[in-house]
Amino acid sequence: MEIQLLSFNCIAFLLFISFIINLLVKGWKKSNSLDKHKILPPSPWKLPFIGHLHHMIGPLPHRSLRNLAKNYRPIMHLKLGEVYTIVISSRQIAKDVPTTHDLAIADRPESIWMKILWYDYTDIAFSPYNDYWRQMRKVCIVELLSNKNVRSFSYIRLGETSRLMKSIQSSSGELINLTTNLFSFTSSFITRAVFGEL
C-alpha cells in the first residue's frame, strides 16, 4: 500500500513540475513575442512573469531607476509584472510628452477587476479616455468644481484648517503624528462638504 501511495505522489509531483515548466515556457514565449510586435524603447533584461521587477529590489527603488537610467536614458521601457511602463528620465522630454502625446498617455490601463468593481467603467476615475469620460469631466467641472461651488466650501476649509493647526501646536515639545492629523483633516473636510454639519 505504501509503495502505491509513494508512486502516486511521485507521479503527481512530476505532473505538477511539468505543468509549472510548461507555464514558464509559454509565458516566456508569449512575452517575447509581444515585445517584438510593439515598438518599445530599450530595456534591461527581464524575467518571465515578473518582467523587470527584479531590477527594483532594494529599499530605495528610485535609486534603482536612477542606475538603470544611466544605461538606458533618456527613455527606457520596463515591464513591471504584466504592465508595460515607459520611464522618462529627461526633464525636457517629460515636459514635452504631455503636450505632444497627450492622447497616447490619457488612457488608463484596463483590468477585469476594475471593470467589475466600477460597473463597466461608468465612473470617472477608471473610465477609459472616450466620449463618455469627456462628458463626465464636463459635468464634474460645471457642477462640482465651478468657482461658485469651490467658494461655497471656503468656511469648511477655514474651519478644518484652523482645527488642524490647533491639533499640531505643541507647547511642551511632544511628538505629533502628522499622518493621523492629515487623514483626520481630509476625512472631516470631505464629510462636511458632502453631508454638511454633523
TrEMBL record:
GO CC terms: membrane
Location of the protein in the cell: Membrane
Keywords: Heme, Iron, Membrane, Metal-binding, Monooxygenase, Oxidoreductase, Transmembrane, Transmembrane helix
Domain of life: Eukaryota
Family label: Belongs to the cytochrome P450 family.
Gene3D superfamilies: Cytochrome P450 (1.10.630.10)
Residue ranges of the TM segments: 6-25
Signal peptide region: none
InterPro entries: Cyt_P450, Cyt_P450_sf
Chief place where the protein resides: membrane
The protein's name: Cytochrome
GO MF terms held by the record: metal ion binding; monooxygenase activity
The keyword Isomerase belongs to this UniProt entry's keyword annotation: no
Organism taxonomic ancestry: Eukaryota, Viridiplantae, Streptophyta, Embryophyta, Tracheophyta
Entry annotated with the keyword Endoplasmic reticulum: no
